[in-house]
Amino acid sequence: MAEAFTPLASTAGGMLIGAASALLLLGKGRVAGISGIVGGLFRPTSDDVAWRVTFVAGLLTSGLLLAQVDGALFVSSVERSPTTLAVAGLLVGFGTRMGQGCTSGHGVCGISRFSARSLAATLTFMAAGFVTVFITRHILEAAA
Amino acid sequence: MKLVVAFTAGALFSLGLAVSGMTRPGKVLAFLDLAGAWDPSLAFVMIGAIGVQFWAWRLVPSLPRPWAAERFHLPARNDLDARLLTGATLFGIGWGLGGYCPGPAIASLGAATADSVVFGTFLLAGMGLWRLVEALGWARA
Fold first, then answer.
1. Which of A54, B20, B43, B62 keeps 20 to 30 A from A63, CA to CA?
2. pLDDT value at residue B94
3. Å between A95 CA and nearest CA of chain B
4. Contacts of residue A85 in chain B, CB cutoff 8 Å?
5. Is A88 in contact with B97 (CB distance < 8 Å)?
6. How far away is chain B from the Cα of A143, in angstroms, using its nearest Cα?
């Protein structure tokens, strides 16, 4: 399935993500790593739950409102079975906590401060993503 | 006031994800499909986000404390270990299967798409499973 190349929208969206991360860093002194913010709720300390829950509430509320404006923003052109989505969710949840970060924490916040750990993590998860899609689309689906 | 900052940051983050195309898993998977009809758009998301966040890091040393918090909580480690790379590998496999990383998954959960409800439920289960591994003392560092 071919997707349209959207360099301008993607750059603008990226800058908004950067602005949100900058606001959380300069305003709350926190790194905007989504897996860390959500995962930290599994290990709550009293002074730290409120901002995490509030940030996640912002993510969810904005998603809810944007879906009313344009539902196509959240539609996938590619079908994945519920089993695939479940396995994928487990791997992403477990892997991001084990690796202490995801696309936002390592990919955006870490690389922009030149962290060697974050650069290594980002190259690793991107390589794993490239290999996984190559195997599922070009080996398994081609054989099926 | 303190919580307004966190809420606004979360809301702005979701807006950025949606505008950039990250909340459409088919687009994410097209970025990861180097051998297919490759869509390089998501590289531009990274460039835009890093380009802004880079300047935020430059401002940190000049601030005595954050605007709405007592102190900065910043990562200190700079070493590489097996846990980091194994976790990143598992994450990348899941990303390549589902087309969601954690931020877009949660933004899409707000939009209540069927895919994100399944993915999001198991995302939280996976995080809980890691918490169990830690509680059992099997995790290092």
1. B43
2. 98
3. 4
4. 97-98, 115, 118-119, 122
5. yes
6. 16
